[in-house]
Amino acid sequence: MEQINEIKSSLQPKLEDVGNYLNDLKTTLPKEIEAFILDLKTTSKDDLLNDFNALKITPGTITVSIIGLTSVLIIGKILFSSLSSSTPVVNDDKKKKKKKVSRAQKINKQIQDVLDEFESKWVPEINEYLVNYKELSEEKVEYQYKYFQEMLLKELMKLDGIETLGNEIIRENRRKVIQFIQDHQKRLDSFKKEIDL
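Above: the chain sequence. Below: its structure as tokens.
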């Protein structure tokens, strides 16, 4: 406790000195700033150039130097940022950590890919065939029927080749897609009976 009191007593005069210095600054600083500004106002271009040539430190040379340096920094920043934005970015994907995809996710994606291809390619073609079959020759109708049956069988074989890893969710997803494709096979079979192929 005594040490703290000693430190306090030694700091007290120093704090008073700092306070006095700040009070002096309050009165002298505005006068110095006024003198600085007045010196700037009264300096001509020729005087300023002569001061620069003679390497004199004057309010004018200091002000022009600070303004010039700041301008160069700002212009450099603007130019650098525009150049860096126009240069191609090196593959940021490498910097980002790639999320690891689990084996189950990969398998589900394979199943989804089969479904997406089937829905985008085969379903529209089958629908068009079933609607417009009357415009085709009998041979063409039979050929198209066999063709679609073969393609649907290939899609089912793709699904059979996908391992479910004993995962019930994957197995159920695969089963639903198989059922969807088989429903289209049934549509074709019903169509065949209906038109007596």
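The two ends are 110 Å apart (CA to CA).
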